[in-house]
Design goal:
Blueprint (H helix, E strand, L loop, with lengths): L3 E8 L5 H13 L6 H21 L4 E8 L1 E8 L19 H8 L2 E6 L5 E7 L28 E10 H24 L8 H22 L10 E9 L3 H19 L10 H18 L14
Antiparallel strand pairs: 1-2, 2-3, 3-5, 4-5, 6-7
Helix pairs in contact: 1-2, 2-3, 4-5, 4-7, 5-6, 6-7
Length: 299
């Protein structure tokens, strides 16, 4: 299926530009012949993907709109990390953008352009139905269309990871990183971590999240262990990202303690697990042996 590009816009990584992207989309889809509900869906999904790009890539974001038997929206940023669809508790309010794309789009995927960035795209609506009633390019998963050479990695062993507490930690980490990014955009220059540092830290963090979720999924839901050894193949280039992470969360903890963030300060249990997790990755990537988690680490 082909789509003719009808518009493109470059946006700075600033929260108000999510609204600019929505208006840009409306400008090109209103009056296009698409059903109003389809346009509404495209507007919602564009908002989610642009928000993700601003928060996680911290780079200029390009939005492209195409029309064919429906609409195709593509959002490009300079973060080479593939999107990760994360599991969340019922009370989680963040990070559900990819779930919405999977539920509402007729097609979606990730394109590589040969550089450091990526383009996340989706399609919605059809003025001409295909034989299956869906976009034939629907990949059904968040994967790259083109493969790239395997990066150099180090096997990290996170031994005895407390499963339920890690779930709590990763959800809070995501919320805190989002707020840290938004706070950085409104603070004076030099007041906090740079955008590139937050982006590198988030890419590194996701490698552990991905490994944890994949390995936990091997157990039936009613047989999930209390503790689990998590094996992570960490890209050697990400060691700086994990070192950034330690400094970023020290900064974020201070902000939350001063009530500068909506998220509550991390509990001593979560902080202890966070320090152990990032510390283990950094130490093992520098050649040290793994150290098992123990509850005695919680002070």
């Amino acid at each position: 299926m082909t789509y003719e590009q009808v518009g493109a816009v470059m946006l700075d990584p600033e929260p108000p530009n999510v609204g600019v992207a929505r208006r840009f989309l409306r400008q090109h889809l209103d009056g296009s012949g698409l059903d109003d509900k389809v346009v509404d869906t495209a507007e919602l999904l564009t908002s989610e993907l642009v928000t993700n790009a601003i928060l996680h890539a911290s780079s200029p974001v390009e939005v492209r709109v195409g029309l064919g038997s429906g609409a195709r929206v593509a959002v490009r940023d300079d973060n080479g990390q593939d999107p990760v669809r994360r599991d969340h508790s019922e009370n989680s309010v963040a990070g559900r953008g990819l779930e919405l794309v999977e539920l509402l789009a007729t097609g979606y995927g990730v394109d590589r352009d040969g550089g450091e960035g990526k383009t996340v795209w989706f399609t919605v609506g059809q003025r001409e139905q295909s034989s299956l009633g869906i976009d034939p390019r629907c990949e059904g998963s968040w994967v790259s269309e083109q493969s790239s050479p395997a990066p150099s990695t180090t096997r990290v062993e996170l031994l005895g990871m407390p499963v339920a507490r890690y779930d709590d930690m990763r959800e809070q980490n995501e919320a805190l990183l989002r707020e840290c990014t938004l706070t950085r955009l409104t603070e004076r220059p030099g007041a906090g971590p740079r955008a590139s540092e937050i982006s590198a830290a988030d890419r590194a963090r996701i490698s552990v999240v991905r490994a944890f979720l994949e390995q936990r999924a091997q157990f039936p839901v009613d047989q999930t262990p209390e503790f689990m050894d998590v094996l992570v193949d960490v890209e050697d280039a990400d060691v700086q990202g994990f070192e950034n992470m330690v400094e970023i969360f020290a900064h974020v903890d201070k902000l939350s303690e001063r009530s500068r963030l909506l998220a509550l300060p991390a509990s001593p249990q979560v902080r202890a697990l966070r320090d152990w997790t990032f510390g283990e990755v950094i130490n093992q990537m520098h050649g040290n042996k793994p150290t098992r988690w123990t509850e005695s680490r919680v002070s």
